[in-house]
Structure formats: structure tokens, C-alpha cells
Amino acid sequence: MNATATMLKTATAPQTAPDADPAGPQPLPAPATLHAEYPLSPALAAQINARRASVKRILSGDDPRLLVAVGPCSAHDPRAVMEYAERLARLSDELAGQIVPVMRVYVEKPRTTVGWKGLAYDPDLDGSGDIARGLALSRALMRDVAECGLPVATELLQPMLAPYLEDLLSWVAIGARTTESQLHRELASGLDAAVGFKNATSGGVQVAVDAMGAAAHPHRHFAMDAAGRPVMAQTSGNPHTHLVLRGGSGAPNYRAEHVQAAAAALESAGQNPRLMVDCSHANACKDHRRQSEVMLDVLAQREAGNLNLAALMLESFLHEGKQPLVPGALRHGVSITDGCIGWDTTERLLKTAAERLA
Ligand SMILES: O=C[C@H](O)[C@H](O)COP(=O)(O)O
Ligand SMILES: C=C(OP(=O)(O)O)C(=O)O
């Protein structure tokens, strides 16, 4: 039984400390405590390093395969996420000649205003906010997905979460709402994994180009160490960053003219022109069914010779669409945040991409 299933089996009782004042601050385990509880074996650490290198080779143009960040908008149900991971792992082996999937295991969700903020924040989906249990579940789930043979992708949103999870990550997103944030550029500068910076929710690409430049530099910044103590961190800079075009202000930016303009902005800034197109979000006008047309358009651009299109993102789960968060009445395998394409559509799209890229 994987760690997540064990966690779920044993974690049904409330996990808050008996004497904790629910209104007051409550202690969290230090990163080192969770690492000890859910350690990374040397073999898995080596596999993650190899996966990170594979992602970087695609983004540097040294590997002609297509990188695809694919999976649910949010990981609200670890059992369903593992069911999805097992399917994706099988498909990944079948398409390995042309496609390198990295699986979205998003445990923090940025909200436009308010809403459920992710497994790490509220694992019981009821507003109880058991962050301690959410952190443990998040680490256990990411490790189980990694042990499934899949590179793990996530958005890092709360910088304090990074020391709990970063050793498990093969690709990291900085989201549209935080690409302009200096804290997230500092965070990215210290990561070993490649980092994709989303364009702004307005559609503006320059903030992401600036973020890539900032993240490439070393930074000295406030951070937390493995023991949970505040420290002065010194990073060496991360040269493995790239732009993610996700549309903005209700308008897509995945078409050839947008991609060419973005590549020009990147090249004039001396940045890597290879980029990822997020087929969801504003590129799909928040309609999950439009992800297919976005992906097929991008594939056509690649076939026309634009190899700067090195990567794609798909929001995909077991079943298509989304559902309201009604605890106790949730349908299995359906997103509770953004709408997703279902597994059958995902499999068909990835197989189509592999055939066209062969
Ligand atoms: O990917 C998820 C959403 O784009 C993001 O969390 C914003 O969702 P919201 O506008 O419903 O808050
Ligand atoms: C929140 C996400 O995207 P964005 O930052 O582009 O809204 C996401 O990819 O889940």
C-alpha cells in the first residue's frame, strides 16, 4: 500500500493537537520531521535528478521531444490522483519516444479572490485548515507519484512550503499571480528543477521575462531551514527557467503571432526562447473543452517548424469538467477547481501528439 493510502487510512481522526487553541497559531512539523517521516530513498533521489535533467534538455533544445505538464488543476483527492498517476505512467512509457509528461500534483491553489486553497491548506475540504496534515499528505502523495515513475510538477506558491517538498519536484511553476513577486523569483533562483514562469493574468509577458532574468541571478534572502528556523539563504541562481503562455484578460496568447512576439521578447532580453503553452486557463477562455483546439494549434505550429514550442500544459483528470466543493457529495475524479479534460480525451491528445511528432 502506498504511503498516501496508508495516510488516508490512518488519518481519518482529526489531527489537531488536543490542547491547541483553534483560534491561535499552532505549531507545524519542521521540514526535517516530514522528510524523516516520508524519506526520499537514494534510488528515487537519483531518478528525480535524472528526470530534472531530462526536462532541462528539452527546454534547452538538446532533446527534441515534447514536454507536457499534465494532470488535475488541484490534487484534492489523493486516491483519485494516484489512480490517474498509474494510468499516466503506463501511457508515458508507451509514448516515451516523443513525449515526456510531468504530472501536475498541485497542492496549493492561488485564488483570484477566495476559495479552497489546496490539499496543503485544507486536506479535509471543510475549511478546518489542518495544514499539518495537509503538508504530510502533500509530501506523501508527491512521493507516491514519483515512485510511480512520473516526474512531479507543482506550482510553488507559499515559499515556506518549498523545503517540505522541493526534493520531490522535477519541474516547478510560478503562477500568473506571483510571477512578478520578488519572493518567488528568489525562491526560483535556488531551485535545482527547471522553473516555468506564467505570464501575468493581464496577459503581460514582460513580467515573466523579467522574472527569468531575476531568477538567473544569485540571491540572499529570508528563508526557513530544514529545522524550521528562519535563516539567511544564499542561492546560486537558476539558469533553467522559461516562459509559460497561459493567456490573459480573457484573451488567448497561444497563436503563432503571440508565440513569435514572445520569442522575440525573450531573445531581445537574452533569455531562452523555448517556451510552454498552457492550453488551459485564459488560453481556453476557462472552458476545459477548448484545450484540445489549443493543443492542436500548437502542434501545427511545431510541425510548421517552430521548435521554440518545447512544452505544453493540460489540466486533466479522470473525468471531465468540474464540480462544486460539497463535502460528502463529491464525484470521484472530477476537479473541484478549474474544469479539466477527462482521461480519454487526454490519452487521445497525447497519442495524437506522439504520432504527429514521430
Ligand atoms: O488553476 C486554478 C485557477 O486558475 C486559479 O486557482 C484561480 O481560480 P479562481 O479564479 O476560481 O480563484
Ligand atoms: C493556477 C494555475 O495557473 P495560473 O497561475 O496560470 O492561473 C494552474 O496552473 O493551476
TrEMBL record:
UniProt keywords, alphabetically: Amino-acid biosynthesis, Aromatic amino acid biosynthesis, Transferase
Region (Disordered): 1-33
Keyword Amino-acid biosynthesis belongs to the record: yes
EC number: 2.5.1.54
Biased composition (Low complexity): 10-23
Tree of life domain: Bacteria
UniProt domain DAHP synthetase I/KDSA: residue ranges: 57-350
InterPro entries the UniProt entry points to: Aldolase_TIM, DAHP1/KDSA, DAHP_synth_1
KW Secreted (keyword) present: no
Known pathway: Metabolic intermediate biosynthesis; chorismate biosynthesis; chorismate from D-erythrose 4-phosphate and phosphoenolpyruvate: step 1/7
Pfam families per UniProt: DAHP_synth_1
Recorded catalytic activity of this chain's protein: D-erythrose 4-phosphate + phosphoenolpyruvate + H2O = 7-phospho-2-dehydro-3-deoxy-D-arabino-heptonate + phosphate
Functional note: Stereospecific condensation of phosphoenolpyruvate (PEP) and D-erythrose-4-phosphate (E4P) giving rise to 3-deoxy-D-arabino-heptulosonate-7-phosphate (DAHP).
Family: Belongs to the class-I DAHP synthase family.
Name used for this protein in its record: Phospho-2-dehydro-3-deoxyheptonate aldolase
Lineage: Bacteria, Pseudomonadati, Pseudomonadota, Gammaproteobacteria, Oceanospirillales
